[in-house]
Amino acid sequence: MRRPAPLFRALLAVSLLAGCTSYRPTPPAFHDALTQPYRLGAGDRVRVTVFEQEGLTNTYSVDQSGFISFPLVGAVAARGSTAQQLEKAIAVKLRQGYLRDPDVSVEIDRYRPIFVMGEVGAAGQYSYVPGLTVQKAIAIAGGFSARANQAEVDVTRDINGEVMTGRVRTSDPLLPGDTIYVRERLF
């Protein structure tokens, strides 16, 4: 009796390849982060304006520990805050013996960078601009290599301190700090 060895080998190969895949559906929080107000993080730079206080009006960088160093009041927590929350935090600290009724405004001057890796022309760190999509980021990084999977890419994103990776289409929007990984196509 003859065994269907080629069929058996093919099924074995397919099952082994299926077991090697790392695909997991993108968690709902991954896309929900796109509709939430922007939260500051290390690497962002903000422009703080204190009305009628030119000595305090300046640009400040969020350091690695998530703080900005503000004159008179010292370190102010910025990581995880929106621009409006940071305005209130600075105003509260300035009211504690420095200014009677400070009028503080915060706007984002420069976002933290994105990172593009894998099958692209020039992998590396690139500046984020609002409205950036995966496809535009890949174009900035020199485009796809000849071996790139051009349909979907993996994006790693930090959402409220939890790092998540999701497989997305190239038309999906990005957030500051995202890492894009372009996989190699199989055939």
TrEMBL record:
Keywords for this protein: Signal
Q: Which residues form the Soluble ligand binding domain?
A: 114-166
Using the record's annotation, list all stretches that form the Polysaccharide export protein N-terminal domain: 35-108
Do you know which InterPro entries this protein is assigned to? Poly_export (IPR049712), Poly_export_N (IPR003715), Soluble_ligand-bd (IPR019554)
Keyword presence, Lipid metabolism: no
Q: Which domain of life is it from?
A: Bacteria
User: Do the record's keywords include Oxidoreductase?
Assistant: no
Secretion signal: which residues? 1-18
Q: Which Gene3D superfamilies match?
A: Outer membrane lipoprotein wza domain like, wza like domain
Name of this chain's protein: Polysaccharide export protein
Highest classification ranks of the organism: Bacteria, Pseudomonadati, Pseudomonadota, Alphaproteobacteria, Hyphomicrobiales
